[in-house]
Amino acid sequence: MAQLWGGRFTKETDQLVYNFNASISFDQKFYEQDIRGSIAHVTMLATQGILTEEEKEQIIEGLQGILRDVQEGTLEISDKYEDIHSFVEATLIDRIGEAGKKLHTGRSRNDQVALDMKLYTRDEIDALDDLLKELLKVLLQIMKDNTETFMPGFTHLQKAQPITLAHHMGAYFEMFHRDRLRLTDIYDRMNYCPLGSGALAGTTYPLDRNLTAELLGFYGPTLNSMDSVADRDYLIELLSAMSTIMMHLSRFSEEVIIWNSNEYRFVEIDDAYSTGSSIMPQKKNPDIAELVRGKTGRVYGALMSLLTTMKGIPLAYNKDMQEDKEFVFDAIDTTKGCLALFTGMLRTMRFNKDVMENSAKNGFTNATDAADYLVNHGVAFRDAHGIVGQLVLYCIEKDIALDDMTIEEYKAISPVFEEDIYEAISMKTCVDKRTTIGAPSKESMEKVIKIYENYLH
Q1: Fewer Cβ within 10 Å of end Cβ, the chain: N or C?
Q2: Which CATH architecture best describes the domain 110-146+163-205+212-352?
Q3: CATH class of 358-456
Q4: Which long-range contacts (CB under 8 A, 24 or more apart) does 270-274 make?
Q5: DSSP class of 231
Q6: What is the chain's pLDDT, residue by residue, as a tens digit (457 residues)?
C-alpha cells in the first residue's frame, strides 16, 4: 500500500524490507496513548488557530470513535499499516475525510512515538507501583503477625543469630520500598512532554507546547528538540529499576525454595502456587518461586539489549531506536506478572513456626549470647569465645542444643555459669535485648511497623 511518507519515492518498498521496517505488530500496544496524544495535539492546534473549531471537533470525534471501536473489538488494527500512527491517521481520513489529513500538522512521527512511549511508560510505572504497594501490604501483615516468631538469621547460608520472621520480612519490605522510590524518581525525571519537537528541529507552526504538556499531565515541555526525539534514558532507567525489582524477587524466591525443602520445612506453599511430579507422588514443587527466579534473567537481558542498542547512536532519531519497544514491553509484562504471582504465593504461604524456632536453637544461634553472658560475669571476651566453642563441640557430640545442657554440664566446662544462663540464652531474651532501631526485638519491630503503616496509608 502507499505509505503516508511515500511522495518522494517512485517505487514500492520491497515487501521484505517493509516487513522488517514495520512496527505495528508491537507498537499497536499503545493505541490508546497514541489517540490520547493526538486529541491533545489537535486541541492545542485549534487553540492556536491552526485548526478551526469545527475541524477540531470532527477530528476528536473521529479519534474517539476509533478508540471505542478498537476497545470493543469492532475495529481490528491491521498489519497492512506500517505503525500505529499510520493506522490511526489512515483510519481517521477514511472516516472523516479532508479534516483527517490535518491531524499530523506540526508533528513528526519522531516526536509522536516519543510521546506515545512516554505516556505508555508513565501508565506502566503507575501499574508497577500499585503491584509493589500490594506486596508491601502483604509483607507488613506478616510482620505484624510474627514479631515473636523466632527463626535463625543467616550469614553465608550458615545459621548465625536468632531473629524473628517479622525482622526477616522487614528486610524485604525495605528492598521493595526502595524500588517504589526508584519508580517515583524515574516518573518525575521523565515527565516532560516531547510533542512539538518535530523530527528534530521543532516546527514553524506557532505551537503552544506548554498547553499540550498540561493537557497530557506533564510537568512541562522538554527543552531541546533533538534530545526529545533521541532520548531513551527513561526506558533504560525503568529497565534498570525493574531489573532491581526482579533481583529482589529472585533473592526472596531463592529463600522460599530453600525454606520449602524437606531439610528446612520452614514454609508450606499453598497448592494453588505449586505443582507435583508426574512420577514422584510425594513431591510439592515451588514452581512459581522458581519461575520468578528464572524470569529475572529475561528482564536483565532487556536492559543489556537497550543499552547496547543506544550506545552508538548519533543525534537525533535513528531507526535503531525502534528496538526499544519489544524488549521494554516484554520486561514490563514479565515484572508485573512476577510481582502479582509472588504476592499471591506469599499471601497464602503458611509458616511452620515451631520448626523455625527449633532450627534457631539447634543451630547454636544463641552462642554469641552465651559468650556475652560470660563477659558480663567478668570473663575476657577471647576466653569466653573459647569456652563457648567448647560448649558447641560438646553439644554436637551429644546431638543437643545449648538450651538442653544441664547446669552441671555447663559448670564442667566453666564454673562461671549459673542457673540464669538459661534465661540469658533463650530465644526470646536473645532477640528482645536487641532494642536499637532496626534490630529484631519486639519493641524495635513494633516501632518500625508503625512507621511502615504510616507510609502505606
Answers
A1: C
A2: Up-down Bundle (1.20)
A3: mainly alpha
A4: 270/345, 270/348, 270/349, 270/350, 272/344, 272/348, 273/341, 273/344, 273/345, 273/348, 273/349
A5: -
A6: 445 545 555 556 577 776 666 678 788 889 999 999 999 999 999 999 999 999 999 999 999 999 999 999 999 998 888 899 999 999 999 999 999 999 999 999 999 999 999 999 999 999 999 999 999 999 999 999 999 999 999 999 999 999 999 999 999 999 999 999 999 999 999 999 999 999 999 999 999 999 999 999 999 999 999 999 999 999 999 999 999 999 999 999 999 999 999 999 999 999 999 876 656 656 688 999 999 999 999 999 999 999 999 999 999 999 999 889 999 999 999 999 999 999 999 999 999 999 999 999 888 889 999 999 999 999 999 999 999 999 999 999 999 999 999 999 999 999 999 999 999 999 999 999 999 999 999 999 999 999 999 999 9
Domain borders along the chain are: 6-105, 110-146+163-205+212-352, 358-456
Name the CATH topology of 6-105: Fumarase C; Chain B, domain 1 (1.10.275)
Other beta carbons less than 10 A from residue 271's beta carbon? 10
Active site residues: 156, 277
Place of cell 504476592: 343
Cell of 206: 506557532
249 by DSSP, 3-state: which?
helix
Q: Report d(CA 413, CA 416) in Å as an integer.
A: 9
Q: What is the pTM of this model?
A: 0.91
